[in-house]
Design a protein that fits this description.
The protein is α/β, with parallel strands linked by helices. Helix content is about 45%, strand content about 15%. The chain has 13 helices and 12 strands. Strand 8, helix 6 and strand 9 form a beta-alpha-beta unit. The longest helix has 21 residues.
Length: about 350
Amino acid sequence: MTHTLPLPDFAHERVEVITGPRSGLFITVALHSSVLGSALGGARLWTYPHWSDALGDALRLSAAMTLKNAAAGLDAGGGKSVIRLEPGETLDADRRRAAFLDLGDAVELLDGRYRTAEDVGSTTDDMLTVSERTQHVVGLPSTVGGSGEPAGPTSLGVYASLQAVLERVTGSASPEGRRVTISGLGQVGGRLASRLAEQGAQLTVTDINPARRAFATEIGATWVEPGSEHLVAGDVFVPAGIGGVLTDEVIDALGVKAVCGPANNPLASHSGAARLADRGILYAPDFVVNAGGVIYLDLEAKQIGTSEEIMARVAGIGDTVRTILDGAEERGVTPLQAAEELAASRLRAGAEAGVR
């Protein structure tokens, strides 16, 4: 299941598109900005109806990574890479390895201005394969001395953001007794669901993979069929799967006080932020909420701070959300606009200082 999203304005520094010589797959690496430093963004292995859909996703996601890394206060630009699978296509072990060797070659073409990492559909072991062709990769398996899977830090940042949002819409940061709907039970959504269940939240969950229903039963959550989750009344709706789920129709049907989740680009259109505000639904911008993984990967790779200090900075995303919500309320703008302006101000400062 995919959603067609509008393309961003083309302001990318460089975009590489290749047919992998080993795998035969469409591969693109999109470098949106290196103003604040070497760009950081994951490698997505996903199914797209057409190669142009994969390219469009890379362009959107890389632009979002620029906002994410800038708003997070990282000295890192924004980029993304995508390996396209055709509908129904699967990879055996040999062709999967070939695909990520091809990706490593494509990343190397950017001369260090972009660093890749695992993302939807890829793993830390895949990044180890990439490292055979380029040194510009982070998040290698912990067994070889790498920083490992970033889903834990991402989930922590989402949880801290959710606390800030609950505090704003209910008066308490505690999830106990709060009605939370999570759409997507992958690495991040599943971790978040487990944590919220342990803390007494009333959970409703779903995932496009029906096998995840067993996990829902295990944690005591109510399962609903995919596509109906936005109809569940509650306190917070958490998009944790694919992008573009918040269409005008979905927004108009939401029966929650707030939206806060890790999915990249959950708004089907930029105007969705104003539509949510008009309905009195608080929206925590995705690129702020889900920045825990890149904060962890970037600081670990640069050896900035101890593990405890890095995780404390990840948890500080909650305070960033509070600052954005306060600023939006004071100025009468949407939280999305306030977050974009925060990122833009840092990018301007970086450009003026000549940071590279």
